[in-house]
Amino acid sequence: MKISIVIPAFNEERLLTESLKAINTARAVFVRVGLESELIVCDNNSTDRTAEIAQAAGATVVFEPVNQIGRARNTGAAKTSGEWLLFIDADTYPSQELFTEVVEQILVGKVIAGGCVIKLQGNHRAAAWVTGLWNWVSRKRRLVAGSFIFVETAAFRQIGGFNQDFYAGEELDLAKRLHRLARKTGREIIILHRHPITTSDRKVRLYKPWELLQFILRAGLRPKAVMKDKSACYAWYDGRR
User: Fold this and answer.
1) One-letter-per-residue 3-state SS of 22-87
2) pTM score, two decimals?
3) Is residue 34 pLDDT above 90, yes or no?
4) Which pLDDT does position 71 carry in this prediction?
5) Which listed site, 44, 119, 212, 227, has its alpha carbon 20 to 30 Å from 233?
6) Which pLDDT does position 240 carry in this prediction?
7) Is residue 241, in this structure, part of any structural domain at all?
8) Is 11 in contact with 239 (CB distance < 8 Å)?
9) Does any domain span residue 63?
10) In what order do the strands lie in the sheet with 111-120?
11) Residue 82: what are its φ and ψ, rounded to 5°?
């Protein structure tokens, strides 16, 4: 069995080195249990050293000219050869313990996809509360966070991958479609919680509280309209790093 790790990356030279270091360290788990793995970084039209850094870390680099996270993930996934896909964001740092849990769930054979709870870097009281709320909702409704998703490749391709109409929240749409497929096949989606994945706090540091609150309120009132509007999802695309 082979696991394909896919990382979408837009102007990630500041954080990508440490993220890839953590991912490559965690990949040792796959070797210990006799699984193959590959590392794919999708350079999503970066203007910095993202591609160079990825190549230096041993990743295969593919290019996606349209700046959109879901599209970058799909482009990266199209170049993979593994039976399972593992999507990890470029500002995220998995552990060997988390990868061990993923392998255990895959080998049991009951899951079609999964994710894990999030731990935000830094000491931000309000952001920690929001993250905790998301983790509760994620486990309750089995919704995956975009920073870490594992999914059977055949299932991912059967449902058409990420919906490229979305500029944010594409992982929630993916989870809904995977739930429908899971019910049909008698399998399940699981949210791991024993070993949270650490992800960057840069949005909290780079954007003012009112900017983040404005987005949350707008997305709560008109989720699909906002998530399909690139200008409304500026925190993902305006290049602040």
Assistant:
1) HHHHHCHHHHHCCCEEEEEEEECCCCCCHHHHHHHCCCEEEECCCCCHHHHHHHHHHCCCCCEEEE
2) 0.96
3) yes
4) 98
5) 119
6) 85
7) no
8) yes
9) yes
10) 60-63, 36-43, 2-9, 84-88, 148-152, 111-120, 188-199, 92-93
11) -90, 160
